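Hey, quick one: can you model this chain's 3D structure?
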Amino acid sequence: MTTDRSVVTDSLGVGLATGAYGASFGAISTTNGLDVLQTCVLSLLVFTGASQFAFVGVVAAAGNPVTGALTAILLGSRNLFYGLSIAKKLDLTAPQRLASAHLVIDESTAMAVTRDTTRQARLGFYWTGISIFVLWNLMTLVGALAGNAIGDPETYGLDAAVGAAFLGLLWPRLTSWHARLVALFGAAVALGLVPWTAAGLPIILGGAAAVVLGMLWRPEDST
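Sure thing. Here's the predicted structure for all 223 residues.
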């Protein structure tokens, strides 16, 4: 039987592992044009790794910041569906939901939906979400200061780090052949559009194409 203590321990383990990755975002962000304050505010207010790396990737490619913001919003929209899926599990009042919304991310959702009781779902959600939030923002600052001292990203090959970091976040979430094929389709669309569109736009259109394919093509359709 799962105990409250084991839920907290597991949640803190996830929080430490995920939050520490904020250092890479901080370093990559400041070596690609954002200053330390902008980088830290981005982590504080956006607080979703994939969206943050996508935004920095567009800016680093000399894309329009508005395009980067739209890309980040598209990727972050999945958190809306996470919220809908765990709302009943957490059984919170409207004010509590509003106060907790910022903590709805991949990891906190995963640690909540697998629990058998409301109490343990809340423990998993809050201990994971809060620990990641605190550590992610702290390590973003550390990484931003380090990246600011490094200087030109091309000197150390960090100009390619945005894409590598984004893939590092994405791949563990592609747990089925169906999800991987949809992701590859979106990537193919984005790559094909690179010569013909402005920087940042291929990511939005590729992501939109993947979403449409994912909605139209269900795993059970191929069985």
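One thing worth noting: The first helix runs from residue 4 to 19.
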